[in-house]
Write a structure and sequence with these properties.
Helix 1 crosses helix 4. The longest helix has 17 residues. A four-stranded antiparallel β-sheet has the order 2-1-4-3. The chain is globular, with a radius of gyration of 14 Å. The protein is an alpha+beta fold. It starts with 8 loop residues before the first helix and ends in a 5-residue tail after the last helix. The chain has a single domain, classed as Haem-degrading domain (Beta-Lactamase, 2-Layer Sandwich), CATH 3.30.450. Helices cover 41% and strands 20% of the residues. InterPro entries: GlcG_carb_metab_protein, PduO/GlcC-like, PduO/GlcC-like_sf. This is Glc operon protein GlcG. It holds the Pfam family HbpS-like. It comes from Paraburkholderia acidiphila.
Length: 135
């Protein structure tokens, strides 16, 4: 039997705290979502002054990264390169800012962020993941 890591409650809080700290240090008003490997929401926080729509987008980015087993930016690039048929895929957050949490090659969850430029969203997500010390 093969065992694999999972995101614990403590992991989720560690990731969230680091992501919030990174966003605040840069004065970025964002929403941060954390999901498990099946895309189920474990954490959602909309910082002061973040637009309401960012809550929906952050969750969608996180789910896309978790279910797709890759950064949501990959899907955005595929579409930008002309493969518009990919818009029919059952993923709604195909924009940069969703980053999977990977341990020993297994995706155990993902972080999605929305509210600033897409590369900044992704930087916040990565700052959270780094706090786990897994990659």
């Amino acid at each position: 039997m093969r065992t694999r890591a999972v995101l614990t409650d403590e992991d989720v809080i560690r990731v969230a705290d680091a992501a919030v700290a990174h966003a605040r240090a840069n004065e970025w008003n964002v929403t941060i979502a954390i999901v498990d490997d099946g895309g189920h929401l474990l954490y959602l926080r909309r910082l002061d002054a973040a637009a309401p729509i960012t809550a929906e987008i952050a969750v969608a980015k996180a789910r896309t990264a978790a279910l797709g087993r890759r950064e949501s930016k990959v899907y955005e690039e595929v579409i930008k390169q002309g493969r518009t048929a990919f818009l029919s895929a059952p993923l709604t957050g195909m924009l940069e800012g969703g980053v999977p949490v990977t341990v020993n090659g297994d995706v155990i969850g993902a972080v999605g962020v929305s509210g600033v430029k897409s590369d900044q969203d992704a930087a916040i997500a990565r700052a959270g993941i780094v706090a786990l010390g897994v990659e």
